[in-house]
Amino acid sequence: MGLAPAANGANRTGRMFTGDESGNFLFEALHSIGLANRPTSVARGDGLELRNALLSAACRCAPPDNRPTPRELENCRGYLEAEFSALAAPRVLVALGALGFGACLRVLAASGAHIPKPKPRFAHGARFRIGEDLLFATYHPSQQNTFTGKLTQRMLRDVLRPAVRAAGLLSS
Fold this sequence. Notes:
Radius of gyration: 15 Å
Number of helices: 6
Low-confidence stretches: none
Largest sheet: 3 strands, mixed
Mean pLDDT: 86
Strand content: 5-15%
CATH class: Alpha Beta
Order of helices and strands: HHHEHEEHH
Number of strands: 3
Distance between the termini: 24 Å
CATH topology: Uracil-DNA Glycosylase, subunit E
């Protein structure tokens, strides 16, 4: 679960995390653990295939300054709820960043899941059981995080591998 389509990435290409540096970073990690058939994606129809994974975003439009307003998030929530309800439960979710994490919590709550008190807080590497679902958290693969070393390939893979294991897609 990401934040929103980037103006020069998904908003331009029509596919989440495609055609920008955040996507390059994410697809490299997804490919390395077997969830993507190739390590990059530059355009829709470029041959990239995800395996047992769905990329989505809390907001469906490219917001100014890459930060959706609460109203934009609320306007897009129905799309996200429809995607969640189409996925078989239990679900293993990976939130890319604090806004993606918050969106996951809101949609899980709307689906009737009991959100524990105190409410789970975003932290890189955190994982929570919410109802029958599992929610994993990682920093967003934005350039401000990856270029500064706040998020490395190893850190992202260290979150993705246990999520994939929890979904029963990896044996070790």
